[in-house]
Amino acid sequence: MATISDQVGALHETPASGSNYLNCDKRIWSWVFTLDHKRIGMMFIVLVTVGLFLGAFFAALIRLELAHPGTTLPFMNHDFYNRVFTLHGAIMIFLFVLPAIPSGIGNFVLPLMLGAKDVAFPRLNLFSLHLFVIGVVFFVLTLLLGGIDTGWTFYAPYSIETHTAVTVALCGAFILGFSSIFSGLNFIVTTHTLRPPGMSWMQLPLMIWALYATAIIQILATPVLAITLLLVIAERVLGVGIFDPALGGDPILYQHFFWFYSHPAVYIMILPAMGIISEVISVHSRKHIFGYKMIAFSSIAIAFLGFLVWGHHMFVSGQSPLLGMIFSLLTFSVAIPSAIKVFNWLATMYKGSIHLTTPMCYALIFIFLFGLGGLTGLFLGALATDIQVHDTSFVVAHFHYQMLGGVGMAFFAGMYHWWPKMTGKMFNDKFGKINAALMFVAFNVTYFPQFIIGSRGMPRRYFDYELLLDKNPEITAYQMVSTAGGLILIATFFGVFINLVMSLFNGKPAPANPWGGATMEWQCTSPPSQHNFDKPPEANDPYDFDDIKYDAKIKGYVTVQ
Amino acid sequence: MISSCLSNSLLLAQEAGNSFWTGRQASTTAAAVDDVFRLIVAVVAIFFAIVVCVMVYFVIRYRHREGVPAEKTATHNTALEIVWSVIPLVIVCVIFYQGFMAYMKMVTIPPNAYEIHVTARTWAWSFTYPEKGATSDELHVPVNQDILLLMRSQDFIHSLSIPNFRVKMDCLPNMYTKTWFQAVETGTYDLYCTEYCGANSDGSEGHATMVTKVHVHERADFDEWLEKAADPVGDRPLHVAGKEFFQTNCSQCHNVNGTAATGPPLNGIYGKTHTMSNGEEVKVDENYLRESVRNPGKRVTSGYETARAMPVFPPATLPEVKLDAIIEYLKTLE
Questions:
Q1: Interface probe, candidates B6, B19, B40, B308, chain A, greatest A C-beta count within 10 A
Q2: Domain residue spans of chain A
Q3: Which of B183, B198, B230 is the last residue of a domain?
Q4: CB-count burial class (<10 Å; 0-12, 13-18, 19+) for A74
Q5: pTM of the full predicted structure?
């Protein structure tokens, strides 16, 4: 039987001495035309990071403008503000929240967790990346053409008749949709066909269950959006008359088509995030995940139920009260699997040995913020209260708690958790934790006030609220507080990336398994070689830490036989 | 300033018929909506407190300590998992039911409701009273009376929202939508557009300017208002009515004593020749006066190019009969 030191020697090649996926080929076209899922994942991560900061730039403009009643920024007016909030939403959703975890982190981690060399279709994976880049080009073109002013929801008939660069933007979104569809297809086939011998479905890491459930949604829902966008383009360009009443169309039909994708889309965003949280909480508590089966099945349940609730965006649209009642009832059903996951994560921490590392801090922040945001969904699912808060700041606060407090925090947790594996470097954990704490406080200061002014009536997408101050004079104070929080929040995003990038220059070399994970990606080197594993690892319980012990000599964990 | 605004908001919470979260309860359905709201607040607060307290407790109690490994506990517990699935399921069913019951009250239009027609357009509201043929850009209603709003948009999707009545319904261009309310106290309330509807190309108007007021009157006051709105001139001479309309609509910017204000003085101008900002000479007659009100940006009096632009007064804001009366009034001035 191999000794501990033999295993350490076999598993721990320092990046400086060994060849890995990053340095094995340094030519630029080896990156542009790579078939390596790890390189593709890293390039996606770079692209979505650019998307995050571009979206955050527009967010800063929104918050600065709303800090004061009247026109606050000198160049701002109704029209410009409308473009700013539209671009903020479209860029954040299509270029960050949707792709960041599945196409970025997921691409890197999925084959490694299966002990595989790559995904099932590496060329299709590259194509997903190229399509994404082309979609980004269309978005940049949209910006250069003055942007769009429809809101990211593109409601007809305004989206049909406005003279902004809607057609170009929708072409971009259409192309990005296919990047997502092919990625989903790839992950499903990979999960079915590339599991190592002995790894049954009930031994899959929960990250993979999450990515699998996500992929089902990506394949089934995204084509509906693609067709809808094509129809809008056809109506704008050819005057067909599907949605615009001036041409004989029905604007509510647009809403049904749009939300049929866009509600499942939010589950594309959150399911992989929950997968990350399952991994991080288990590993950093040194404890087997609690309720594995329920977490796995709840991911599938959320994917399925997510297709049945889109009408809760349309309670006041003019759809019938009967339809409203059905959608309200179904909406509550989807709350239950999410609640189950939160309880399972807490039970995982029970009697664990909790290491408050930066990734664990982000996972705890996720539970707080996603938990609160999810609970505020109850106001939106219930018919009577939704009437009051629909299209107000309350909704804006709710979805920011879910998308940024949920998906965003999970993205940061995943980035910190897998950074040593991706780059072979350890980051500054103390800086990471302080930045996380500041992000947590700033987040709540930014968004909680928006619940309150929203339920009192403050509409969303309003350039100015001067006309509201007669009856609600307190709005100014709440907006100012929200802006102060928002600016600090954006600064903490910079904190994450400064921390991670600095580790590339100053960071200590990472061991193969810095956190003591039991999933297979921790058994290859940090960073992995181009082909991942010298020999395929043996299938095991991905949450059994009994044989994984800390070795102070390498400042990492090793598997003891 | 912040503390006074925050204490102001706390004050709002302590007045009678108020909810901290949703504001004044000014309609018959508001209390039911707020009851559902408060039920959900309670559920949210309790579950959130449980989750956060358990999480914080575990993080402290089970933090990593040197030499103390994690304890191997059961990795699942069927009874526990059933309990924490069924209890939330029951709770959300209760919330659904309460929300549904209150909603049914909000969408069941009472018989014999007083009908008012609403037309939404970029970026203003217009309310028409079929009983008398009156039009107004603010919504006037009698207290303690069921009101039915029959709504339509002239262009894009808008949405009529009166937060204090807990009312919200989209206005569509291709069909009518309906909503109803009964106000329980006299007063003035805000009415917002809550479906994004764009802006004009110079950015001076848009979705956020589509705000107006709801005036709830005692029955007698409402009837009086409606008579006036339907027949603003009444029995008096046209120019006498015109003076009143001038004072309401024009006197903030124009006076009639020869001195310049935001806008030029309007006494003794009829029949004179005025110079425009582009040098054009124009005779001040009825057509010029009409154009100045309906399309004020078309020609601006010389010397007032940099003054604040005169707002447009379309027929919904200033009906034809009022415009006629104002012109008559101006013709009497020296």
A1: B40
A2: 4-559
A3: B230
A4: exposed
A5: 0.91
